Amino acid sequence: MTKSEFVERVAEDGRIGNKKLAAEAVDAVIDAITAALQGGEDVAFTGFGKFSVNERGPRQGVNPRTGERITIAGGKVPKFAAGAGLKAAVK
Questions:
Q1: In 53-73, which positions are buried (b, 16+ CB within 10 angstroms) versus exposed (e)?
Q2: Eight-state DSSP code of residue 2
């Protein structure tokens, strides 16, 4: 499902109003989650899941052209852990 398909589905729900308002609501939620993660916060929705930032350490890799071993720098990566309610709904 693409973002535009998701916005259409939210608009069809009836609680938002129209497609323009649904797109603004989806953008606002994504922006709020992004800003929280950039600030080092976790975002948890009970029953749905938790967004967090994980620290990834440096690791060894191989250059596919030369076969030379290289060190790949670590960094921060976003992570999502599904909650019990979401897991049960998908199962």
A1: eeeeeeeeeeeeeeeeeeeee
A2: -
The neighbouring-strand residues paired with 41 are none
- Domain residue extents for the chain: 1-41, 42-91
**DSSP letter string over 26-89?**
HHHHHHHHHHHHHTT--EEETTTEEEEEEEE--EEEE-TTT--EEEEP-EEEEEEEE-HHHHHH
For 85, residues 6+ apart whose C-beta sits below 8 A from its C-beta are: 46, 47, 48
Task: Give the C-alpha distances (Å, rounded to integers) separating 54 from 41, 48, 63, 72.
Answer: 11, 19, 25, 16
Instruction: Give the pLDDT confidence of 11-63 residue by residue, as tens digits.
Output: 998 898 899 999 999 999 999 999 999 999 999 999 999 999 999 999 999 99
* CATH class, range 42-91: few secondary structures
